[in-house]
Amino acid sequence: MIFDPNQRQNNRSARISMALFRMTQAIKKMTQLESDAAGFTPIQIQALLFCLHTRSDAATVGNFAHAIGTTHVTAVKVINGLVQKELINKAAKLEDRRVTLLQLTSEGQLAAAKLEQWGQSLEDLLLTIPEETLASLELGLGSVIAAMQQEGHVVVAEPCLGCIHFHPNAREGSEPHYCGLVQKHLSNEASLKECPEHTSSEGV
């Protein structure tokens, strides 16, 4: 229904759906231009930034595939290409050797750091919109993302703070925090990384 302009006239959800669809097309074009300038494909950039910002024990091929909404096979191909470029290393997880952990090489760290501004053109565009409009947009998009997450269409990775599994300052030492999900202690640095298993404590 969203592609029929006559149907959209009296259907708010259809109008919003079309607006979101047009936005995704525009964002794809904007990020492609930035990717071309950086010398990587958009999915390669996502892989490098995933490794940069995801907690080390959660930076797996499977979680990367879920994060960008692609198949495991496609994710493996992307990662293997970056391994060949000597930007990413792969290693079997000690607790489960069927799981492949991803880690940036020193060259990969430099490349990922240079890509931190990827998506800046979108942020610059949003900065031209009044603050009160952005506040309403944030609330609305939050509801859309929550609904999509509920249906399993999107993974929302966030740092530990605010997660129901996170127990801050559970003990003294270099790894003071505790994650009840993976049942391990975390350093301050690790707790600030994104985790694809983040479960918000809001409303719990």
UniProtKB/TrEMBL annotation:
Q: Which GO terms describe its biological process?
A: response to stress
Domain HTH marR-type per the UniProt entry, residue ranges: 13-146
Query: What keywords were assigned to this record?
Result: DNA-binding, Transcription, Transcription regulation
Question: What organism is listed for this UniProt entry?
Answer: Paenibacillus agilis
The keyword Calcium belongs to this UniProt entry's keyword annotation: no
**Molecular function terms from GO:** DNA binding; DNA-binding transcription factor activity
Q: Which SUPFAM superfamilies match?
A: Winged helix' DNA-binding domain
- In the UniProt record, does the keyword Transcription regulation occur? yes
The protein's name:
MarR family transcriptional regulator
Q: Which domain of life is it from?
A: Bacteria
